[in-house]
């Protein structure tokens, strides 16, 4: 009996497949595909464009037309010395809503959503650095929102602002040409958010202005002014006021 049991154990060991071999089912082991390849197989053609999005219209115009024109106008030999637009910062001061309680919080959130709609990017909340008793502001309280645009979104926002927003301003006479600092950066603002067509006028319950800072890579203020002028910014003539 002992010899028979021993032979049965040896036969079972021979019948057992070696480690790393074929599975018990008799079929061959399937090689695992990378996750990226598996995701590509799952994706279906829903008609979306497979080509990358085209560059912004103003960026193409800057690269093909404005760079040679600025080189000639400013007398620059090196193409890397030509002024360029780095970023656009849009900010809203909402400190008055932070101290109004529940109703003020709702207005704060509404202004934040409107800025997100205008810029196409989620804003960042700005907090108070210190407490000010006279204004009922405490340290860490939300006092405003801002968004920084770069690249394609920056040029698209600039295009919409020049072609759509400025013509919708009431009694528009041009923007102040003296808003440049010594680095060529330009600051100006809008008194209401409804100048942008993305914001529905019927849904607006209060007017909220915004400040816009256009940061340029330029050596002199005159270079930054010439860059924005070439883009189509409607500066008013010196000596005339926007009444």
Mind explaining what this structure looks like?
The chain is of the alpha+beta class and 243 residues long. It has a domain at 84-170 and 180-231: Ribosomal protein L5 (50s Ribosomal Protein L5, Chain: A, 2-Layer Sandwich). Helices cover 36% and strands 14% of the residues. It is built from seven helices and five strands; from the N terminus they run H-H-H-E-H-H-E-E-H-E-E-H. A five-stranded antiparallel β-sheet has the order 2-3-1-5-4. The longest helix is centred in the first third of the chain and has 18 residues, at 57-74. It is extended, with a radius of gyration of 31 Å.
Helix-strand category = alpha+beta
> What is the overall pLDDT average?
81
Principal-axis shape equals extended
Q: Give the strand tally.
A: 5
Q: Give the % helix.
A: 25-40%
CATH homology-level superfamily of one domain: Ribosomal protein L5
**H/E order of the elements?**
HHHEHHEEHEEH
What is the top-level CATH class of one domain? Alpha Beta
Strand order of the largest sheet: 2-3-1-5-4
């Amino acid at each position: 009996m002992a010899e028979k049991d021993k032979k049965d154990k040896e036969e079972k060991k021979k019948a057992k497949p070696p480690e790393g071999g074929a599975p018990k089912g008799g079929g061959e082991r399937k090689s695992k595909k990378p996750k990226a390849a598996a995701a590509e197989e799952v994706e279906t053609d829903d008609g979306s464009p497979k080509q990358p999005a085209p560059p912004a219209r103003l960026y193409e115009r800057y690269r093909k037309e404005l760079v040679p024109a600025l080189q000639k106008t400013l007398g620059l030999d090196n193409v890397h010395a030509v002024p360029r637009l780095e970023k656009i910062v849009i900010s809203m001061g909402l400190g008055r809503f932070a101290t109004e309680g529940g109703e003020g919080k709702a207005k704060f959130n509404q202004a934040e959503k409107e800025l997100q709609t205008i810029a196409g990017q989620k804003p960042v909340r700005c907090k108070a650095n210190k407490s000010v008793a006279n204004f009922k502001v405490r340290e860490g309280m939300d006092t405003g929102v801002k968004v920084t645009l770069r690249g394609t979104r920056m040029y698209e926002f600039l295009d919409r602002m020049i072609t759509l927003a400025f013509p919708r301003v009431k009694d528009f006479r041009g923007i102040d040409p003296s808003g440049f600092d010594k680095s060529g950066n330009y600051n100006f603002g809008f008194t209401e958010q409804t100048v942008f067509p993305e914001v529905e006028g019927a849904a607006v319950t209060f007017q909220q202005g915004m400040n816009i800072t256009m940061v340029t890579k330029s050596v002199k203020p005159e270079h930054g002014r010439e860059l924005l002028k070439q883009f189509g910014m409607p500066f008013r003539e010196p000596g005339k006021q926007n009444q």
